[in-house]
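Progress narrative, Year 2. Work on MauE/DoxX family redox-associated membrane protein from Streptosporangium amethystogenes subsp. fukuiense advanced from sequence curation to structure prediction during this period.
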Amino acid sequence: MGYVSASAMTLLSTIFAVSCMGKARNLKEFAEALRSFASERTSMLLATMVTALEGLTLLAFAISLAGVRWAAVLGFLLAGSLLLAFTLVMRRIQGAHCHCFGKHGTRYSARHVVRNVLLASAAMAGLVEHHGAAGPEPEGIIVAMAFGLVIGLFVVMMDDLVEVLRPAGSR
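Result:
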């Protein structure tokens, strides 16, 4: 694992951990949000599948920390695929709300598209670098992981930050 893959893995793990826990805690609400394009039964199945796939992504990253290289590959591929799928689906639904982190959600906008594309790019960068990484310094890995954690927390809080920084008249 190199610096880029360590940072990307921590970033994506942070995002998927918060997302998976939020969706699992509010699964019915998440399923209800999917009702705009799926039946009641199908929306609950989709909500459960998405939450499970996010959990599987986390599990793959956790297993990779034990030195199982294919698990990191699986984690990066799942993360990138999920993020791109979310972007494609949400862009097709008029008036969709982003339930990315389990909250009631904000209206899906261009910033969510940019966020998901950048996160998918981080997954692909981590995947590419993971294959070619030669034993980096442990101190550098710690710094890279701390960077990924800080950026991950910023991404999780993005909608809240936008709301706080928005001028009072436009709320």
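Residues 3-170 form one domain. The chain has a mean pLDDT of 85.
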